Amino acid sequence: MKNLVKLFSFIIPASLILSSCEGPMGLSGKDANESCKECHNSKVVEQKSTEWEFSKHAFGEAAFEEAGNTGCTPCHASEAFKYVSQNNIPATFTLNATTGKYSNDYATTASHALGEFNCFMCHDSLHTSYTFDDFYPLTTTAPVAMTMWKGTKTIDLTQDGGKSNLCVKCHQPRPLTKSSTLSNGDIVDYTAMAANPTTVFYSSTVGNAAPNTVIPSYRTHVHYGTAGAVFAGKGGVEFQGSLAYTNSAHTSKASCEDCHMAEVSGRTGGHTFYAKDNFNGCNVAGCHSTPITSASTTLWKTPRAEIKTLLDALAAKINAAGGTTPILHSEADPEANLWAGKTTGNYDGYLNIYDPSSNAAGVWKNPAPSNSWTQAQKDANNALPVFPSLTNAQMGAMINFQMALRDFSMGIHNFNYTKALLQNSIEKL
Predict the structure, then answer these.
(1) 353 burial via Cβ count (<10 Å: 0-12, 13-18, 19+)
(2) Cα 345 from Cα 355, distance rounded (Å)
(3) Rounded Cα gap, residues 320 and 326, in angstroms
(4) How many CB atoms lie within 10 A of CB 228?
(5) Cβ(352)–Cβ(331) under 8 Å?
(6) Which of 145, 170, 206, 382 has the fewest CB atoms inside 10 Å of its own CB, making it the most exposed?
(7) Within its chain, how far is the Cα of 221 from the centroid?
(8) Could you give the count of Cα atoms lying within 13 Å of 136 in the half-sphere of its Cβ?
C-alpha cells in the first residue's frame, strides 16, 4: 500500500508537468511541447548540462562557504551576482563623514547573499518565451568597473557582443585596502606606489601601528580572479621601466568564449569552461593562420617559458628582502596549490607569515597576532623572525607577481602586458 501511495504521489505531479507543456498553443505561438523541445534536447540543454557538470562553477563549494557574506557573494553566489548586475551596484568606496572610514559599495543584500551557480545566473531570461531566444540576452554585458580601483578604471571588452564582460564581472582582482583600524579603510593607491617606488610601504620598526596602513599577513593579496584584469591590460602596479604597457592581439580580437567555450574536446571546452590543451578556439577561421598545438613554439611554448623565467626572477628579487628566509610562500602539492609548477619555487602568491589556522608552518612572525590565539600559538609566533620592512617597489612587485601568477595562463591571455609588469618590477627592485 505504501508503495502504491509513493507511486501515485510521483505520477500526479509528473502528469501535471507534462500537461503544462501540451496544448494547442504555447507562448511561442505553437504547441508548447514542441517549444520545450527546441532547447530541451540532447544537442542543446542536455549537452550543455553534461558539460557543466565538469565545470568548477558547478562544484558549489565557495557558494556554500561564502553564503551570507554580502561582500564576497557577488562573485560566489548566483542570487548575489544577479542582484549586483541587475541593480548596477557601483564599485565605488564611500567615505563616512562621521567615522572617517571608507566602505566598499560593491555588495549585495543579506536576502540575496546565497545561491549555487546555475543556468539562470548567466542566462537570466530563461523560460521567458520558452524558445531558443531565451539564452540571450545574458545577465550583463555592460562595461565592468574594477573594484580594485574603486570604479575609477573600467574594463570593456566589446568583441563578440561584449560577452567577455560577463566573465570579467567576477574574474577581476579584489581591492587591496588599508586597515580600518590604523587608517581609513580606503584602497591602496597603485598609481602612487608606482610613482614613489622608494617610499616605505610598511615599517617593521613600527609594526602593527600607524602610520603603517597595511599590515602584512599570509593572505595579503589581490585574491584569485586576476585573469580578466590581465587580459584587459589593466590593474597592475605599472612601474616605469624598459617595457611599455601594451596589449597583445587577444585583448581586442579574442573573447573569453572563443577559447574557454571552444568546441568540446574531452573534458574541455563548451560549458566546462576549461581551455587547458584545447586549441580548437585558437584555430577557427580568422584567428591563427598556422594551427596552434601543444608543440607550437613561437605562440605557445616560448612565451610561456619566458613568463616562467620572469616569475622566477621576480620571486628571487622579492625573497631577497628576507635575506636567507624567503618572503613568498611555497607549496608543491597541486591539490593545495593551483599554481604548483608554474614557478620553479612552486609559489602560490601568499606571504610565508605565520597563521595558526592557515599557515601554521609560516617562517615569519605575524605582525598582528589575533587575541583569539592560544598562548602556545602566540609563543610560536614570537619565536619567529620579525617580518622585514617593505618599500612601495617591493610591495608593488608582490602585487604584480600575484597578478601574473594567478592569471594562470603564463602570458597567453596577454603576453605583452604580463611581460611588462614582471620585467619592469624586476628592474625597479
Answers:
(1) buried
(2) 21
(3) 7
(4) 25
(5) no
(6) 382
(7) 12
(8) 5
Rounded to whole angstroms, the Cα distance separating 252 from 231 reads 10
**82 is written with which cell numbers?**
544577479
Question: For a pLDDT cut of 90, what percent of the chain falls above it?
Answer: 86
**Which of 7-16, 121-130, 228-237, 330-339 is predicted least confidently?**
7-16
* Alpha-carbon distances, residue 12 vs 9, 15, 21, 26, 32 (angstroms): 6, 5, 15, 22, 20
C-alpha cell at 198: 622608494
Residue 371 one-letter amino acid: N
Per-residue model confidence (pLDDT) at position 204:
98
Q: What is the 3-state secondary structure (H, E, C) of the chain?
A: CHHHHHHHHHHHHHHHHHHHCCCCCCCCCCCHHHHHHHHCCCCCHHHHHHHHCCCHHHCCHHHHHCCCCCCCHHHHCHHHHHHHHHCCCCCCEEEECCCCEEEECCCCCHHHCCCCCCHHHHCCCCCCCCCHHHHCCCCCCCCEECHHHCCCCEECCCHHHHHHHHHHCCCCCCCCECCCCCCCCCECCHHHHHHCCCCEEECCCCCCCCCCCCCCCCCCCCCCCCHHHHHHCCCCCCCCCCCCCCCCCHHHHCCHHHHHCCCCECCECHHHCCCCCCCCCCCCCCCCCCCCCCCCHHHHHHHHHHHHHHHHHHHHHHHHHHCCCCCEEECCCCCCCCCCCCCCCCEEEEECECECCCECCCCEECCCCCCCCCHHHHHHHHCCCECCCEEHHHHHHHHHHHHHHHCCCCCCCCHHHHHHHHHHHHHHC
Half-sphere exposure of 104 (CA within 13 A, CB side): 22
Residue 8: pLDDT over 50? no
Buried b (16+ CB within 10 A) or exposed e, 400-411: bbbbbbbbbbbb
Q: Which residue has the higher pLDDT, 89 or 130?
A: 89
The cell for 70 is 554580502
Q: How many other CB atoms sit within 10 Å of the CB of residue 156?
A: 14
CA distances from 50 to 77, 78, 166 (A): 21, 19, 22
Q: Tell me how far apart the alpha carbons of residues 251 and 262 are, in angstroms, rounded to a whole number.
A: 17
DSSP-assigned beta bridge partners for residue 102: 95
Per-position b or e across 193-210, b if 16+ CB within 10 A of its CB: bbeebeebbbebeeeeee
Q: What is the pTM of this model?
A: 0.91
